Amino acid sequence: MKISIITTSFNSGATIKDTIESVLLQTHTDFEHIIIDGGSTDNTIQIVRQAENRYLGRLKYISERDNGIYDAMNKGLRMATGDIIGILNSDDFFCDSDVLKTIADNIRDVDAVYGDLVFVNYADSSKIVRIWRGSQFKRGGFFRGWHPAHPTFYVKKECYDKFGKFDTTYDVSADFELMLRFLEKEGISNRYIPKTFVKMRMGGESTRSIHNIIKGNQNILRAFNNNGFKVSRFYIVRRLFPKAVNMLKYKLRHKSI
To answer: Whole-model pTM above 0.85?
Structure first.
């Protein structure tokens, strides 16, 4: 099964090489890597071009101004020709060389798969900040604060064709809205894989500032409303509490080692 990997970037010269190398090391070679750059003024595109020959025709890229990260992702979706589509941003990279193989082996009889995510220090990716352990989706999970880690969320292209792309009216948390729409509203079939797919550098769009965290949570409440769902006023506490517990468990476990 062909997998389309979409990477959005803007002035990502410090990190995109790790992203590219992690894709090129994959043992599942039936893929295309689509890089949507927002008109970088640093050496991002130079790094992409230097790697182009190693892709053996499996790379597509453009560099032009866009209307934000989700507009860029939608551009990538329109360019994608794979059976399966996932997002790997330019601050992130695959944990090992068998991630795409694992995805391809497990998605044949379902619409989507997702796994675990490791947050790492931006400057030193060997330093783990937090681990996001997933679990199998159960209907109503989003209302209890559950959702997949979006960088591990791989979906069959037919789902995007049928249920739509990213809603660009959300400048933060459009990824949450899309997963809510696909899983809770449309009920696509899915499978959790207990394997770490991606290492994600801290400092992404939704976690870069307190302002964006507040805005992201406001957008999440709007996502429920726009999809016809009502949630408790205590929802945000229920959403953030498991993440806080997860981080505390990780810190305590490593403190005792």
So the answer is: yes
